[in-house]
Each structure stands twice: as structure tokens, then as C-alpha cells.
Design a protein that fits this description.
It is a single chain. About 75% of the residues lie in helices and about 0% in strands. The chain folds into two domains: about 425 residues, Growth Hormone, Chain: A; about 55 residues. The relative contact order is 0.15. Helix 11 packs parallel to helix 16 and helix 16 runs antiparallel to helix 17. It has about 500 residues and is an all-alpha fold.
């Protein structure tokens, strides 16, 4: 627990359920942030290694995206189940179980010799990540009550989440070129094992406090939504190869629609639903997750396509492509650290919109890449803007997505914000991949590298448009945010600074 005294006007029921004082709260936060870092890193660590992985296990070009999406889909679709399990079974217990599964499946991925073995291991790794992320974030929220401590903790959380994506590309390049692609997965296994031991040693049981309710997990809901998302992403991916009117593509879309309808039906009738639909009306949850979905669709696509441009067009090796992500990671960390101070100065809404528009400007700049460009002239400037804006926006959306939520639903809300980011990323990667493939196929008169470049330019231009739309939709957060005097959920209301939750002068 943070040593910061309770913020004025903090809900009485949160004070009553606050954990006992935690020794070395900074060390506990470091462990929990490391768990999130491992999850974020594993989302992108394979990106630079994909050409080597393809050759090593015999993947097709289309199969490369499934090495990323098998992890992302399992992660995104099961995060809600992981969040609910954290609320019902215990946050620390679920975190430990997730870290164990994550480590074992990452080791199996590194030992895989066939495409199906690799994709199955990546799927299991995503299941482990789905337990880790919501459990760790809800423990952070429990460790730090509303006030300056929580604002700083969310800044750390945003920094490691964004930096994990960039660091994954860097580490993946180093490992692929020096030790070989299996070590991309072995490194994740070792890191998860270290975090597991640190959690056992440093994260106290006093933070556990599971809700004293029967653990009635909604497995039917988890199955229907996961299958629906797999069908949707398969349809989007296959459309780029077979066309939008192909029977398999139409069948996949039809199955996704039926399964999503069935999911809503199941949720309305289950006694303890995976996704209580009423949570979207709590605080800023609904609009924050909508904007996070759009941000995620751009985030995952950026870390997928940028290394491919560097390797397939500019001729960079895995190590060079990985090292090129350092400026992006540094800019992201700066943006995350600046977000609380900017929020105090200009307000949460303006900080969020500024972050989204800065990213959009960077992507518009990146859409000017050329087939005979260089890292310094075509890539460096844009990724500095993108990283800065990403850090600013992610901190704000993470705080908004858990703002105004009842204590009993903290794990669910934590899982939901990660769910929408991951699902947005998986769907966005499928859509952007289809756009890139179509544009490249339509540029057959150009040399191969120039045709590829046209596809990547289309991706970055579309991503900028998505972020511009996200900035416009952010206005919904103003309406959805709870008023401080009526916020009884035990977290900071969005209209105010996460470091100064009662200051009306910083309202959105």
C-alpha cells in the first residue's frame, strides 16, 4: 500500500477495504510492472524474428501473422475470464498461475519444430498472459489508493506497457541474430520464471482479498467469444488472399456473427457472467474501452509492419531492426512520465487527445516512406512522435478504463481494458494486413520493394485515420466520466488529474 495519505473525499467503503500497510511498496510495484512488461514484450518479441521462424518451422507467409495473432487472440479473448477469476479466486493466486503457464508454454514454443506445435504453444502463452495482466493491474490499484501514488503507479504501468512492445522488437532482433529464433521464446520463459519467484517473495498475501463469492466462472461465455474472435480474424485474414466473396470468408464472418450473438445471450442469462453488460455504464468504462480498441488496432500493427519494412525494403538485419526501436521505446517512456504532469496542467481530456493526435501526425509522416529511404530520413522522426503520443494516451486510457468501477469489479475492469487493446490489435492487424496485401498486389508494375513499400504506406496512412477518429470519439469520455462527489467506486474520476482527483480546475 502506498504511504500516501487518503485523498480528501475518498469513498468510505474503499478506506474500509484497503489492505494493510505493505512493506516496500516500490518493490511490489516493480514486480507487478515486470509482470506486465513480460506480457507486453511477448506481444512483439517475435516480430523481428518472423522471417527466421518461418524458415525454421516451415510457416507460410500467411502463417506468420498467426504466430502473432494466436497469442493476441487467446490473450484478448480470455482476459475477461482472467479478470473475473482474479476477483473470485484471488488476484495473487491467479497471477502466480498465469506466470507458471506463461513460462512453460514459452519454453514449449522455443522447442517447437512444426507450425501447429508453435501456434499451439503461442496460444497457451496467450492464456497465461490473460491471467497475468488483469491480476497484476488490479493488485496495483489495490496497492495504491486514489491520489498522487496511484497517478505515479499508472505512469509506471503505462511506461512499461509501451516500452515492453518496443523492447520486444529490440530484444527479438538481438536474440535472433546472436542465438537464434528459439531464444526469442526461451528468454520469455526465463523472464516469467524470475517474475514468478519475485512475486512469491515480495507480493504479500494481504493484497489478495478475493471476493467471498462462489467461483462460478463463465466458461460458456469464454468459449463463445473466443471462437467468435478466431472466426472473425480468420475471415479478415483470408479475405486478403481469397477475396471478400469467397465462401470460406463469408462463412467465417457468418459464424462470428452467430457466435457473438450467442455470447450476448449467454451473458444475459449466466448467474455470474464473464462480461456483465452493466459494467459499460460504470464511470468511463464504455468510452475508454472503445478508444482503447482503436489505439490497440494501430499499436500492434505498427510493431508488426515497421520491422518488416526495415528488413524487407531497407535491407536491415534482425539486430539492426531491433536496435532501431530504441528511440521509439525512449519516446514512449518520456510520454508516459509526462502524462501525469500534463494532466495536472491541461486536464486529462486534452492530454489524451494531444497524445492521440501526436501519434496520428507521426503515422502521417511515416506514410511518406520510400523504397530507397533510410532509417534516419524516413523512420527516426516519425517514431519519436509516435512513441511520445503513445505513452501519453495509454496512461490516460488505462486510468479512465478503471475509473468509477466498484471494488468487486476491479479485476474485471482491468481485464476489459487489456481485452479491448488486444482484440483491437488482432482485428486491426488482420485488416491492415489485408489492406497492405491488396495495395501491394495492385502495384505489380513496380519493383518488388517498391510494391511492398506501397502496402506499408497504406497501412500507416490508415492507422493515422484510425487515431484521428479515436481523438474525436474521446469526447465521449467527458460524458461517461463520474463526477467526484458521486464517485463511490474507489478510483479516480477521469475528468480530473489522476494525481489530484478532487481538483475541479483540471476537469475535462
Amino acid at each position: 500500500m502506498s504511504s500516501t495519505p487518503p485523498a480528501h473525499g475518498q469513498p468510505a467503503h474503499e478506506q474500509a477495504t484497503r489492505p494493510r500497510a505493505v512493506a516496500r511498496p516500490a518493490a511490489v510495484l516493480a514486480v507487478l510492472a515486470s509482470a506486465q512488461f513480460a506480457v507486453a514484450l511477448s506481444t512483439s518479441i517475435v516480430n523481428v524474428a518472423l522471417p527466421s521462424v518461418r524458415d525454421g518451422v516451415g510457416l507460410s507467409d500467411a502463417g506468420m501473422s498467426w504466430v502473432v495473432n494466436s497469442y493476441g487472440l487467446a490473450f484478448g479473448a480470455l482476459l475477461l475470464l482472467g479478470g473475473r477469476a482474479a476477483d473470485l479466486i484471488g488476484r495473487r493466486r491467479v497471477l502466480l498461475a498465469g506466470l507458471l503457464l506463461f513460462a512453460v508454454s514459452a519454453l514449449a514454443a522455443g522447442l517447437a519444430s512444426t507450425p501447429w506445435a508453435l501456434i499451439a504453444a503461442r496460444t497457451a502463452q496467450g492464456v497465461g498472459a490473460a491471467a497475468i495482466a488483469p491480476a497484476a493491474l488490479s493488485l496495483v490499484m489495490r496497492l495504491h489508493p486514489p491520489g498522487p501514488g496511484r497517478g505515479r503507479a499508472l505512469g509506471v504501468w503505462g511506461a512499461v506497457s509501451g516500452a515492453g512492445g518496443a523492447a520486444g522488437v529490440l530484444l527479438g532482433g538481438i536474440l535472433t541474430q546472436t542465438l537464434g529464433w528459439p531464444w526469442v521464446f526461451h528468454a520469455s520463459a526465463i523472464g516469467a520464471a524470475v517474475v514468478l519467484l519475485a512475486t512469491l517473495r515480495l507480493v504479500p498475501g494481504s493484497l489478495e482479498e478475493a471476493e467471498r463469492a462462489p467461483a462460478r466462472l463463465d466458461l460458456a461465455g469464454a468459449l463463445t467469444v473466443t471462437t467468435a474472435l478466431v472466426a472473425l480474424v480468420y475471415g479478415l485474414t483470408a479475405a486478403g488472399r481469397s477475396g471478400w466473396t469467397d465462401p470460406l470468408v463469408l462463412g467465417a464472418f457468418g459464424a462470428a456473427a452467430v457466435l457473438l450473438t450467442l455470447f450476448v445471450f449467454v451473458e444475459r442469462r449466466h448467474p455470474d457472467p464473464l462480461l456483465p453488460l452493466g459494467i459499460f455504464s460504470q464511470g468511463s468504462v464504455g468510452p475508454a474501452n472503445l478508444v482503447m480498441t482503436l489505439l490497440g488496432s494501430v499499436w500492434v500493427g505498427l510493431f508488426f509492419f515497421l520491422p518488416l519494412y526495415q528488413q524487407q525494403v531497407l535491407g536491415a538485419g534482425p539486430l539492426e531492426a531491433g536496435l532501431a526501436q530504441l528511440p521509439l521505446a525512449a519516446a514512449n517512456m518520456i510520454g508516459s512520465w509526462l502524462a501525469p504532469a500534463l494532466t495536472r496542467r491541461i486536464g486529462a481530456y486534452r492530454t489524451l487527445v494531444a497524445g492521440l493526435l501526436i501519434q496520428a501526425a507521426g503515422l502521417l509522416w511515416l506514410a511518406r516512406i520510400s523504397a530507397d529511404g533510410t532509417f534516419l530520413t524516413d523512420v527516426l522522426g516519425p517514431i519519436l512522435l509516435i512513441g511520445l503520443g503513445l505513452g501519453m494516451a495509454f496512461v490516460q486510457l488505462t486510468g479512465a478504463a478503471v475509473s468509477g468501477v466498484r471494488t468487486a469489479d476491479a479485476g474485471l475492469a482491468s481485464g476489459l481494458v487489456n481485452t479491448t487493446r488486444q482484440i483491437g490489435g488482432s482485428v486491426g492487424l488482420a485488416v491492415l494486413g489485408t489492406l497492405a496485401a491488396a495495395r501491394t498486389a495492385g502495384a505489380t508494375a513496380l519493383p518488388h520493394t517498391a510494391a511492398l513499400t506501397e502496402g506499408y504506406r497504406t497501412v500507416f496512412l490508415a492507422s493515422a485515420a484510425v487515431l484521428a477518429a479515436a481523438a474525436a470519439l474521446s469526447r465521449l469520455l467527458v460524458r461517461g466520466a463520474p463526477r467526484p462527489e458521486r464517485d463511490t467506486a474507489g478510483s479516480d474520476p477521469l475528468p480530473h488529474s489522476p494525481t489530484s482527483p478532487t481538483s475541479p480546475t483540471k476537469s475535462l
